[in-house]
Specification:
The chain is built from no helices and eleven strands. A hairpin with a 7-residue loop joins strand 9 and strand 10. The termini are far apart.
Length: 118
């Protein structure tokens, strides 16, 4: 199983980025894909998750309103649209996968750096 996040970069505050997660190596039909982020010196933070079937999406309260997760099953891609970015959104963003019935994310991809300048 491979998960590869991409699309990060340097953006000014108020700007937008769309991150992509390419998933391969198995069928993800019974899986949930999540986005996480980790800033230097901070703990990893959950951003959003989507069930591969698309019928369940969840954001923690702190992420609601500016971030949108979506997926394209035809291309095995999951996206994270990030709008109105703030300097505190600066972090390495990761995508990960877990079984829909499972408690833990078991597959992790290499992250993509997002830097928001003020």
């Amino acid at each position: 199983v491979q998960l590869q996040a991409s699309g990060g970069g340097l953006v000014q505050a108020g700007g937008s980025l769309r991150l992509s997660c390419a998933a391969s190596g198995r069928s993800f039909s019974n899986y949930v894909i999540g986005w996480f982020r980790q800033a230097p010196g901070k703990e990893r933070e959950f951003v959003a998750r989507i069930k591969w079937s698309g019928d369940s999406i969840y954001y923690p309260d702190s992420m609601k309103g500016r971030f949108t997760i979506s997926r394209d099953t035809a291309s095995n891609m999951v996206y994270l649209q990030m709008n109105s970015l703030k300097p505190e959104d600066t972090a390495v963003y990761y995508c990960a996968a877990k079984m829909a019935s499972g408690p833990q994310y078991i597959y992790w991809g290499r992250g993509t750096q997002v830097t928001v300048s003020s």
